[in-house]
Design a protein that fits this description.
The chain is about 35% helix and about 25% strand. It is built from eleven helices and 14 strands. The strands form three sheets. Strands 1, 2, 8, 9, 10 and 11 form a six-stranded antiparallel sheet that branches. Strands 7-6-3-4-5-12 form a six-stranded mixed sheet, with helices on one face. A hairpin with a 4-residue loop joins strand 8 and strand 9 (about 175-180). Bound molecules: zinc ion.
Length: about 300
């Protein structure tokens, strides 16, 4: 095994690394979130099951954002779940991520993905900066785990065998992805070989080992090239301008009604907790020459 990049776990937290097998038609990525994940949790007190699902979604969004070939953003969204009606995670191509979940009272009793988000849908949206077009893929949440649901998304969208292993707890979140290369049919045993070994990963190993140690643990007999670490950070894209667009979308009557009742409109960003205030003068300015906005209310 030749690992061409020096690894130090202290600097590898909050980072994503790619790797390839030199002799096998398989590539992969590893991501580890620490401070970035705890920043996602800072403004909400989630039940453990919702928190862990959100953490898995955060790591998955970074693993998927690593496939973007342009400056843009990937949004992973779960809608319509029984106990989790909404879960949104966004990660930019530069690995700035944010996320939130809404849950109902019984979510802390939920066991497994089905009872959390049964009957819901998983949507993956890819947007390129400065472009209107976007790509959206939707898959039903039929798998037993978020990994399984994402694997069926890959099967439909990229048609390349792809497997994910995700793990999250209160302190950190980690993910590991393997994907067959387009010429993988010439070596079917290779895919079997790398995935059987990855299935032996224990959650503690996925969450606790840096990429180099994890790859050595699984593939010490293979020739793996590990690339340098890309930093991942929590960063919210909310801004006063985006909140203004949301308020315009609500309509003048409703927003003026809030101002006359409360004296101002106060909006807290659900992703980062930052507060925005709009007094009577601000609100009148908003509706003086405003086009209608289409920003969804929960995405500032
Ligand atoms: Zn924010």
């Amino acid at each position: 095994m030749s690992l061409q990049s020096e690894s130090n776990f202290a600097v590898e937290r909050d980072s994503l690394r790619r790797f390839i097998f030199e002799q096998l038609p398989v590539q992969g990525r590893h991501v580890h979130l620490d401070a970035s994940w705890r920043a996602v949790l800072e403004h909400q007190d989630y039940p453990a099951a919702v928190r862990n699902l959100l953490g898995e979604a955060c790591t998955a969004s970074a693993l998927l954002a690593a496939t973007l070939k342009f400056d843009g953003m990937l949004t992973l969204q779960i809608r319509g779940g029984a106990s989790v009606p909404l879960l949104v995670v966004q990660c930019t191509s530069g690995f700035n991520l944010r996320g939130l979940a809404h849950w109902r009272g019984d979510a802390d009793q939920a066991a497994g993905l089905k009872s959390l988000v049964g009957d819901g849908q998983l949507a993956i949206t890819i947007e390129q900066n400065q472009k209107v077009e976007r790509y959206q893929g939707i898959v039903p949440l039929e798998g037993a785990t978020l990994s399984a649901c994402l694997e069926s998304y890959f099967q439909r969208s990229e048609q390349l065998p792809t497997r994910l292993w995700l793990n999250a707890d209160r302190d950190s979140a980690a993910g590991f992805l393997l994907q067959a290369m387009p010429d993988h049919e010439n070596n079917a045993d290779a895919w079997q070989h790398v995935t059987v070994l990855a299935d032996t990963l224990k959650p503690a190993e996925l969450g606790g080992l840096p990429a180099q140690a994890l790859l050595h643990r699984l593939y010490h007999e293979d020739d793996v090239r590990l690339f340098g670490a890309a930093p991942v950070a929590f960063r919210c894209q909310c801004s006063r301008a985006r909140i203004e667009a949301t308020l315009r979308g609500l309509g003048a009557a409703e927003v003026r009604g809030i101002v006359s009742e409360l004296g101002k409109v106060h909006v807290d960003c659900e992703f980062c907790g930052r507060g925005y205030d709009f007094d009577k003068v601000d609100v009148e300015g908003l509706f003086a020459s405003a086009p209608m906005a289409t920003t969804p209310a929960q995405l500032h």
